[in-house]
Amino acid sequence: QALCHATRVHAMHDPTEGGVATGLWELAVASGVGLRVELEAVPVYAETRQLCDYLELDPMGLIASGSLLAVVPPDGVASALEACAAIGVPCARIGRVVDVEEGCCLVSATGERELPRFDQDEITKLFA
Questions:
Q1: In a 10 Å sphere around its CB, with 0-12 CB exposed, 13-18 middle and 19+ buried, how is residue 112 labelled?
Q2: pLDDT at 16
Q3: Is pTM, for the whole model, over 0.90?
Q4: Radius of gyration of the CA atoms of the chain, in A
């Protein structure tokens, strides 16, 4: 509700199994768009990163229950961030929508690559 009162929301998706990356793919496909996602902008708790490093899991494909992906217009990003902060909900701008022809790209300090796809949640590796 806070987002909807702060700015126009084009789309929302709750990524769960398959993590943020899978949620982003689902959102892009359903909306007929491409995405440029900034890896370093995606919030990951330090403890999660340490466990993923130790267990050789990719946090982008790890169950993301409790998260919400929201697409807002560029001129609504600041309002969206402020609205979430005002109610104590952590929020981050992690990327932008691009033409579908550009695909879904993950951008990091080491370069660009296709946004990864996860056929199964990374956590299932622990039970294999």
A1: exposed
A2: 87
A3: yes
A4: 15
